[in-house]
Design brief:
Shape: globular
CATH topology: Rossmann fold
Pfam families: Abhydrolase_1
Helix content: 40-55%
Strand content: 5-15%
Number of domains: 1
CATH class: Alpha Beta
Structural class: alpha/beta
Organism: Thiosulfatimonas sediminis
InterPro entries: AB_hydrolase_1 (IPR000073), AB_hydrolase_fold (IPR029058), BioH (IPR010076), Carboxylesterase_BioH (IPR050228), Pept_S9_AS (IPR002471)
Number of helices: 10
GO molecular function, one term: carboxylic ester hydrolase activity
Order of helices and strands: EEHEHEHEHHHHEHEHH
CATH superfamily: Alpha/Beta hydrolase fold, catalytic domain
Keywords: Biotin biosynthesis, Cytoplasm, Hydrolase, Serine esterase
Strand order of the largest sheet: 1-3-2-4-5-6-7
Largest sheet: 7 strands, mixed
CATH architecture: 3-Layer(aba) Sandwich
Oligomer: single chain
Number of strands: 7
Length: 262
């Protein structure tokens, strides 16, 4: 079973957190507990090969790999809860909501979209070349690659430079993910594509995006509300790819406001 942290709050709604690529529960545990812990019972799940979670056996087929990860998350999460996924975690949360909607009361995708990488008819995403470069870099020097990635995630945040340096240093102090977890996660970022299913989800959905996210083109952010007709879309002014770190209260307020309507 995956490593998980449960911050119990009897008689409160359950809120499950799935972190992004290169991270672990520690990246947002304090923020979640300080800003949301009084209102929800928090369930923080660490992805395979990240934090204290063991890696899962690799699969040659991306679909099988995705199912292996999703099954592991489903085993670790409550039988029914609100579901919050950040970046890669948002894609995994979408897969769970599509596959087992009865277990998801509402879905929040933080700094996440229905598809992470570009193809011929989807330009609002990360280029295949960048993904290939990341895969090569991770295999050559995962520590250096992660440092660059953590710095990239904060680019565009309207916060003091020293705060960005502190975030990157804090991430470097954590236990490094396994190489298997990193490479499998990159495969899933390239594989997942929920553009068709995202408009058909039966539960309430919130897309919570940073105004200056370097991994989500601004043109897409501006048009996203017209694409997601059945969902709520909120743009966090001044934030980038890690809104909970750069704009902690604004991010928490948006989540609480959305869930208060449920």
């Amino acid at each position: 079973m995956l490593s998980r942290l449960i911050i119990e709050q009897p008689n409160r709604p359950k809120l499950t957190f799935i972190h992004g690529w290169g991270a672990q529960n520690s990246v947002w545990q304090d923020w979640a507990q300080q800003t949301l812990g009084a209102y929800f019972e928090l369930h923080l799940i660490e992805l395979p090969g990240f934090g204290q979670s063991n890696a899962v056996a690799s699969q040659a087929n991306d679909q099988m790999l995705a199912q292996t990860w999703v099954d592991a998350i489903l085993e670790a999460m409550p039988q029914k809860s609100h579901l919050l996924g950040w970046s890669l975690g948002g894609l995994l949360a979408q897969q769970i909501a599509i596959q087992q909607p009865e277990r998801v009361q509402s879905l929040i995708c933080l700094a996440s979209t229905p598809r992470f990488t570009q193809n011929d008819d989807w330009k609002w995403a990360v280029s295949p070349k960048l993904m290939a470069d990341f895969m090569r870099s991770v295999q050559a020097d995962s520590a250096a690659t992660l440092k660059s990635f953590w710095t990239l995630q904060m680019q565009g945040s309207e916060i003091p430079r020293q705060q960005i340096k502190q975030f990157v240093q804090r991430m470097q102090d954590y236990q490094l993910p396994t190489l298997s977890g990193l490479t499998q996660g990159l495969r899933l970022l390239k594989y997942f594509d929920f553009r068709e299913q995202a408009n058909e989800l039966p539960m309430p959905v919130l897309w919570l995006l940073g105004e200056h996210d370097p991994l989500i083109p601004q043109a897409f952010i501006a048009e996203f509300s017209t694409i997601q007709r059945q969902a709520q879309v909120k743009i966090l002014a001044g934030a980038a790819h890690t809104p909970f770190a750069s704009h902690p209260q604004q991010t928490a307020d948006a989540i609480r406001h959305f869930l208060a309507q449920r």
